[in-house]
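Weekly modeling sync, notes
Attendees: S.R. (lead), two postdocs, one rotation student

Agenda item 3: backlog of single-chain predictions. S.R. asked that every request posted to the team notebook include the full sequence so nobody has to chase files. The rotation student volunteered to paste the first one in as an example of the format we agreed on. Action items at the bottom.

Example entry:
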Amino acid sequence: MKLKVVWIGKTKAPAIHALTDDYIKRLSHHADVEAGAVRDESAVLKFCARDARPTRHTLVLLDGKGKQLSSEELATFMKEHQERNPLPLLFAIGPADGFTNEARQAAGLVLSLSKMTLPHELARIVLLEQLYRAFTILKGHPYHLGH
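Predicted structure, as returned to the notebook:
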């Protein structure tokens, strides 16, 4: 499976960089994963455009108004996507003021991590951990049950 995780804006905190790198490394054992900052929402939408080069993506937006899934439900979503859709998944964490309606309409899924408001950098770490957890659930690895 191919995954891309992007966030809008630069990160200054070394701890966030370290945790991001750790989870990207863990994810790379289960998927072809890319991650990085993008300038703005239009940069996110370019990955999903019909003429996107080199590959178009299925967009998953993280938004407080999105659907909440359990870890197991996220794993099921990823498995079913992989089985039915050849496009890689693009998980996008938006700006402080959220995504526009245009971006929400372009998304295959609008996902909320919690009813609570999370700082965007913390949301990135939670998302990466949950993606890793989803793969361990699918592989029957004890990580999920051991935490």
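Discussion: group reviewed the output briefly. The longest strand covers residues 58-68.
Action items: rotation student to repeat for the remaining queue; S.R. to check formatting next week.
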